[in-house]
Structure formats: C-alpha cells, structure tokens
Amino acid sequence: MTEGILLIYLICIIIGLAASFAGSLVGMGGGVILIPSLLFMYHYSDAFAWATPQVIVGISLITMVFTAFSSTVSYYKSSRIHLKIGMLFLTGSIPGGILGSWLNQFVNADHFSLYFGILMIVLSFLFLIKREKRTENDTSGKTPVLSVFVISVIIGTISGLFGIGGGAMIVPAMLFLFGLSIHTATATSMFVILFISIMSAGTHIALGHVVWEYVIFFIIGAWVGGTLGAKVNQLIDSNVLEWILRLMLIIVGIRLIIEGLM
C-alpha cells in the first residue's frame, strides 16, 4: 500500500471526525462540513477524482448514520432525547428522505441552494427572538401536528437531496414549535437524523452512489467524532451552544449561497 493511498485514507478519517464532531455538537448531522470538504478535494486533487457530487452525498449520508447512531447512544444514556417529539418528526422525514435521495439524480439544485442558504441565515437570526421554554418532559398545549409533518417532509427531502442531515431545520423547529432547551433539541435532532440517514443512505446505495473502498474510513471518523460531540454538548452552557448553532447555520447558509451562485 503506497504512502499516497494511506494519506487519502487519513484525510477521509479526519474529515469524517471533524464533520461528525461538529454535527453531533449542534444536532446538524455533519454534512455541512463533509460535503464542502470533499467537493474541495474533488476539484483540487486528482486523488479524489472518485468523489463526484452524487458519491459525496451518498458518503455523507452513510457517515451521518454512524454519527447519529453514536450520538444517539450517548444522548440516550444521559436521557437527553425527547422520544415523543422525535417520533413525530419521523412521520414525514423518512418518506421525504427517500424522495430527496431519488430526486438527487435528476434535479439541478443550484438555485434551490441559493434560496435555502438565505433561509439558513434567516433562521440564525430567529434565535434573537424570545421564546417560551418548557420543562424537558412537558407535552402540554396543542401539538402542531400538521405543521410538524409538513416541516419534516421538507427536512427529509432536503436531507436526501443535499446530504446535509436536515438538522439545520430540525433544531430551530424544535426550539420554536415546542420550546425545548437547546440541549434536548440537539439530542432529539440526532435521533431523528439517524433514521432519516438510514433511509436516505439506503436509497443512494441502491442507486450506486457509494464508493465502498473509502466509506469505512469516514465511518471510523464519524463514530469517534459523533461520540465526542455528544459528550462535549453536555458540558457546554446553553447560551454558548445556541451561539455555536447560529454560527453553524450562517456557515451553512453562506456555503449554499456560494454554491448557488457558482
């Protein structure tokens, strides 16, 4: 095995670890880091010629399965996940994820990337609005079932289409629709992303969008990064975590806007 191949494998592990750590920390999955990182390597290194856009989305979703699984295990042990709300989000996000993965091979999403990027930046500023906060197990009040279903279908479709997990919309939705704390919202988001990613990744595998030679190295990084991100999340103050999430949303938005304008 040549040193060049070993270096490629090491880069895959590092990208997987960094993406999964950040994704687990704020409940966004990690695709926001993994996808632009691989796109950069694809454009500027012949060693990553295998990383076509469709392959990158497929690898991102498989990586997120293991990111979300390791995160969910850690969050579940610390009783951070709101299972009732998580299951409600899954009603639309799973079929949406399958739809988005199928649409990935047909849709030129450049303009959509531009508008979605602007939406992410707008969402980041919503955190300036005062909102009702409830206790973690409070299920009082009318649950906006139809609103959650529509949002979750959109989230799942975006996840399958772009491979970004959907957490950029899941966490704000949980914060503003249910008044969850940032810690519970991020934990529950990773629980939802686990199932979205499984369904979406399965579709991409069936479509042949996965280069298995490299996937295992992203998985190694994802497992470690996802576990570390969940543990660090529990040590960070809620206000600090909200600012980190806002920053991540702005980064997502800028990246998508640039992608949409290119």
TrEMBL record:
Q: Does the keyword Lipoprotein apply?
A: no
Q: Which residues cross the membrane?
A: 7-35, 47-69, 81-100, 112-129, 145-170, 176-198, 210-228, 240-258
Against InterPro entries, the record matches this protein to: TM_pro_TauE-like (IPR002781), TSUP/Inactive_protease-like (IPR051598)
**Keyword line:** Cell membrane, Membrane, Transmembrane, Transmembrane helix
Statement: the UniProt record of this protein carries the keyword Membrane? yes
Q: Which GO terms describe its cellular component?
A: plasma membrane
Where is this protein found? Cell membrane; Membrane
UniProt membrane topology term: Multi-pass membrane protein
Q: Which family does it belong to?
A: Belongs to the 4-toluene sulfonate uptake permease (TSUP) (TC 2.A.102) family.
User: Can you say what this protein is called?
Assistant: Probable membrane transporter protein
Protein species of origin = Lentibacillus amyloliquefaciens
